[in-house]
């Protein structure tokens, strides 16, 4: 195995793992605040899982991006990680991934400082995580060779469906008050 092959494999593993952590974070986050699932609101294990996976995506995402930067066949430069749609290979897919990471950093950083923000502003910024998930889903579907794997595809679609159902339940039956 060459160094580039190793970096490519590492990028795929870290990307899928980061995607998994974000999926769990979103599903548990919506479930905890959905009135239809109010019994989860005080479930410390689910809250802990949500909080853990919110921060787990960061090192996994860093490994994903760093390994792509080190992989010479990926042809991704440092600016491509910040500025979307600059790469010649998989421009749309990589660009959507770049936008998603930018949005997730905003959501994560504002999450750390939510006590210093007005509740309305923090809530609006936190809802950007749905946008980030959609962007990552599209990034994976358009550019990820692993998305063609039946297990990866099934899990991805199941998470998307779960989020849709939970969001619909939250809209229809209400939302629990936020703990500050």
Description:
It is a single chain. The chain is mainly alpha-helical and 180 residues long. The chain has one domain. Helix 4 packs antiparallel against helix 6. It is globular, with a radius of gyration of 17 Å. It starts with a helix and ends in a 7-residue tail after the last helix.
Features:
180 residues; mainly alpha; globular
Q: Any idea how many domains?
A: 1
Low-confidence spans: none
Kindly report the average pLDDT value.
85
Please report the number of helical segments: 7
Along the chain, the helix and strand elements come as HHHHHHH
Helix amount: over 70%
User: DSSP strand (E) fraction?
Assistant: under 5%
């Amino acid at each position: 195995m060459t160094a580039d092959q190793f970096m490519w494999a590492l990028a795929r593993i870290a990307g899928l793992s980061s995607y998994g952590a974000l999926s769990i974070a979103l599903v548990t986050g919506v479930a905890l605040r959905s009135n239809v699932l109010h019994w989860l609101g005080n479930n410390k294990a689910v809250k802990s899982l949500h909080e853990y996976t919110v921060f787990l995506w960061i090192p996994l995402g860093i490994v994903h991006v760093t390994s792509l930067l080190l992989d010479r066949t990926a042809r991704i430069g440092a600016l491509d990680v910040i500025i979307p749609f600059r790469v010649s290979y998989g421009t749309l897919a990589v660009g959507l991934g770049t936008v998603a990471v930018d949005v997730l950093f905003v959501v994560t950083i504002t999450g750390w400082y939510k006590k210093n923000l007005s509740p309305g502003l923090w809530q609006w910024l936190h809802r950007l995580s749905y946008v980030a998930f959609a962007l990552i889903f599209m990034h994976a579907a358009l550019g990820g060779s692993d998305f063609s794997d039946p297990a990866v595809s099934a899990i991805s679609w199941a998470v998307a469906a779960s989020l849709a159902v939970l969001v619909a339940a939250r809209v229809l039956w209400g939302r629990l008050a936020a703990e500050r």
